[in-house]
Amino acid sequence: MIETLTSLWDPYGIWTAWTLLYIVLIIGGVMFSVAYMTYAERKVMGGMQRRQGPMTVGPFGLLQPIADGIKLFSKETIIPSQAHRVVFLLAPMMLFALSLIAWAVIPFDKGWVLANINVGILYIFAVSSMGVYGVIMAGWASNSRYAFLGGLRSASQMVSYEVSMGLIIVCVLLCAGSLNMQEIVLAPRPVWMQVLLFPMFIVFLVSILAETNRAPFDLPEGESEITGGFMVEYSAMTYALFFLGEYANMILMSALTTILFLGGWLPPFGITALAFVPGIVWFALKTASILFFFIWSRATLPRFRYDQLMRLGWKVFLPLTLLWVVVVSGTLLAFDALP
Fold first, then answer.
1. Which pLDDT tens digit goes with each residue over 86-138?
2. CA nearest 30: which of 99, 78, 84?
């Protein structure tokens, strides 16, 4: 088994077939997961609301995502006459591309990573931070007041919650002693350290809801007050790219949560008797459990008001995460447990 795929370059600097195959597998896996994440969301929400969900296209509605994709990509793309055409079309492509390139540093199992770089967590944070530009570009280029307001909302919301997410990641890095994604998973974590990080796990779950503009923090596209927000002027393929990017980001943030807090591909609770199960299976199951939290939140929680969203980010999460950085670093120093 090849330990790391980042070394698979030929002497002339051209990617080998193995590396290209791995890239295709990652993109194909993410797209397949996005398609059936929409199906799972509709079925789970249907069960929570005492209805069936998709049932018509294919057995148990399993072909519904394919039918939706064909419908969206076969429709005509309408560009408003007053829109800035280049930026209008570039925004969804940028958002979609950013949601894919972040997967380069995600380890699915030991050695199963495209780019095993020593600053993988910084790469993830930089790529996820750039996602806000796609939303702002879409809001501005549409030349619509509603779209522009949605873009402004998204910018302030994502910046607000990225601050607390960064401080939470600092707490994890203090315990792991590395910025490498594989080393974060493999770093020893005794029970007391897991208990110490548990409050940050809860805050991180709420923060990724806000970072991905998901309910109850879907204010940038709030249909009740700004009629669809930054996507209000988009249709057909351009709307589908926003849709795919949003769900790919949800899966990415779920995978990041699994790596930071849930042990990645390792068996849960360190049970060695479960080590016979392939690591990628544990990684997928843990990621799916976080995705279920996304669906559960959408089905059960009402949308926040915008002032409540900002208050939670700046007056609750920011002071709490700042305090917890001090608590974690002080505890590690007091017990001489710094890695």
1. 999 999 999 999 999 999 999 998 888 888 889 899 999 889 888 888 888 88
2. 99
Burial of 72 (0-12, 13-18, 19+ CB in 10 A): middle
SS3 9: strand
Opening angle at CA 67, ends 103 and 35, nearest 5: 20
Please give the torsion angle defined by the CA atoms of residues 331, 337, 338 and 339, in that order, rounded to the nearest 10 degrees: -150
How many other β-carbons are positioned within 10 Å of the β-carbon of residue 192?
Answer: 11
Tokens for 5? 């795929």
Lookup: tokens for 6: 């980042």
Which residues have a Cβ under 8 Å from the Cβ of 202 and sit 6 or more positions away?
none
Q: Would you state the structure tokens that stand for residue 53, as one six-digit string?
A: 């969900």
Note the pTM of the prediction, 2 decimals.
Answer: 0.91
- The pair of structure tokens assigned to 153 is 């909302």
Assess contact for 182 and 260: CB atoms under 8 A. no
First to last CA, the chain: 29
Angle 232-88-227 (CA atoms, 0-180°, nearest 5)? 10
Q: Which residue has the tokens 């429709």?
A: 75
Dist. CA 79–CA 124, nearest whole Å: 32
pLDDT tens digits, one per residue of 201-260: 999 999 999 888 888 888 777 666 667 678 888 888 898 998 899 899 999 999 999 999
